[in-house]
Amino acid sequence: MTDKPVLYSYFRSSCSWRVRIALALKGIDYETVPINLVKDGGQQFSEDFQTLNPMKQVPALKIDGIVIGQSLAIMEYLEETRPTPRLLPQDPQKKAIVRMISDLIASGIQPLQNLSVLKQVGQEKQLPWAQKVITSGFNALEQILQSTAGKYCVGDEVTMADVCLAPQVANAERFKVDLSPYPTISHINKALLALEAFQVSHPCRQPDTPAELRA
Amino acid sequence: MTDKPVLYSYFRSSCSWRVRIALALKGIDYETVPINLVKDGGQQFSEDFQTLNPMKQVPALKIDGIVIGQSLAIMEYLEETRPTPRLLPQDPQKKAIVRMISDLIASGIQPLQNLSVLKQVGQEKQLPWAQKVITSGFNALEQILQSTAGKYCVGDEVTMADVCLAPQVANAERFKVDLSPYPTISHINKALLALEAFQVSHPCRQPDTPAELRA
User: Fewest CB atoms within 10 Å of the CB: A136, A167, A190, B137?
Assistant: First the structure.
C-alpha cells in the first residue's frame, strides 16, 4: 500500500520540472507517471488523462486524494501542507515579489512558447517567435532581479521564483536565445544548477528521458 | 496626504479588471492611473512606466511602499494583508482548486489571446486564433467547474477563481466565442455580474472608459 504522491510528468516539460524541483527541495517522495507529449500524437490527449486533467497538460499531481493541475497551484499546495523548507519568504512584501517573478515566467513567458502554441505558429516561424517572447520576458526579468537578487532571485534563499527560473533558462537555451545580455539571470541559474534538488529533477535524468539525452 | 493604493489600469484589460474586482470586494479605496495600451503607440512603453513595471503591462499596484505587477501576485498580497473578506477558502484542498482554476485562466488562456500576441499573429488570423485558445481553455474549465461549482466557481463563496472568470468571459464575448457549450461558465458569470463589486469595476465604468463605451 502506498500513499505516495503521483506526478504526471514529461521529462522535457519546463512546468513539470518546476514541480519536480519543488518536490525534491521539500524531500517529498513520489512516483512518476510519464506522459509523452509527442508520442502517439500526444498521450495527454488520451481519454484517461483528460479525465484526470481536462487541460490535457502536464504536470498534474495526485496527492492527498485530489488531483491538482497547474504547476504554481501545485507548489502553493505543497507549501501549505508541507511547509518545510519554505519556498515563499515569510515577509508579505518579499512573498509578493517572489510570486510576481513566478507569475511573470508562468503567465508572461512560458505559455507563449509552449509546444501547443508553437505548433500553431508554424514550423519556420517557431524559433524567432520563441526567441522574441523569451527575450522580451528576460529583459524585464533581468531588470527586476537586479534589485531583488542576492544569491538567488529574491535574497539568499531558494524560492518559488528560482524554481520557475531554471526551467525557463533551459527553454531559452533550447531555443538558442543569446543569454549574454542577462548576467543576473545567468548567474542565479548557475547557482541553482549546482543544487542537488535541481540536478535530480533535471530533464536529462528522468525515468522517461530518452537514452540519447541522458546525462 | 494620502497613502491610498494606486492602480495602473486600462479599462479594457481583463487582468486590470481582476484587480479592480478584488479591490472592490475587499472594500479597498484606491486611485486609478489610466495607462492606455493603444494610444501614443502604447503608454505602457513610456520610460516612466517601464521603470515602474519592466514587463510593460497593466495592472501594477503601488501599495504599502512597493509596486507589484502580475494580477494574481497582487491578489495574493491583498489576501495576506487585507484578509477580509477572503478570496481563498481556508481548506487547503479547496484553496488548491481555486488556485488551479485561476492559473488555468491566467496562464492557460489569457496570455495566449492578449493584445501583444494577437499583434504578432497578424490581423486576419486574430479572431480564429483567439477563439481557438479560449474555446480550448473553456472546454477544460467547463468540465472542471461541473464538479467544483456551487453558486460560484468553487462552492457558494466568491473566490479568486471567480475574479478571473468574469473578465475572461468578457474577452470570450468580445472575440465572439459561442458560449452555448458552456452552461456552467455562463451561469456562474451571470451570478457574478449581478454583484456590486463586479459592476463598479466593469470596463464600461472606468475613469478611462471612452464615452461611446460607457454604460
Answer: A190
Q: How far is A97 from chain B (nearest CA, A)?
A: 7
Task: List strands edge to edge, sheet with A60-63.
Answer: A31-34, A6-9, A60-63, A66-69
Check A96 against B140: CB less than 8 A apart: no
**For residue A71, what is its C-alpha cell?**
504547476
Where in chain B are the domains? 7-85, 92-198
Do the Cβ atoms of A66 and B97 come within 8 Å?
yes
Q: Judging by DSSP bridges, how do beta strands B6-9 and B31-34 pair with one another? A: parallel
* Level-2 CATH architecture, domain A7-85: 3-Layer(aba) Sandwich (3.40)
CA distance B143 to A104: 27
> Is the pLDDT reported for residue A2 higher than 70?
no
The shortest CB-CB distance from B55 to any of A66, A106, A140 is to A140
- On whether any CB of chain B is under 8 Å from the CB of A102, the answer is yes
Tell me whether residues A107 and B107 touch, CB distance under 8 A.
yes
Whether the complex's predicted ipTM is more than 0.90 is answered with yes
Q: Long-range CB contacts (< 8 A, 24+ apart) of A84-91?
A: A84/A26, A85/A25, A85/A26, A86/A157, A86/A159, A87/A22, A87/A25, A87/A26, A87/A158, A87/A159, A87/A160, A87/A163, A88/A159, A88/A160, A89/A154, A89/A155, A89/A157, A89/A159
The second-level CATH assignment, the architecture, of A92-198 is Up-down Bundle (1.20)
What CA–CA distance (Å, rounded) separates B209 from B4? 22
What residues of chain B score a pLDDT lower than 70? Answer: 1-2
pLDDT at B196: 98
Q: Are A71 and A59 in contact (CB under 8 A)?
A: yes
Contact A96 B77 (CB under 8 A): yes
Round to whole Å and give the CA distance between A81 and A64. 10
User: Which are the contacts of B185, defined by CB distance < 8 A and separation ≥ 6?
Assistant: B138, B141, B142, B145, B165, B169, B179
**What pLDDT is attached to residue B2?**
56
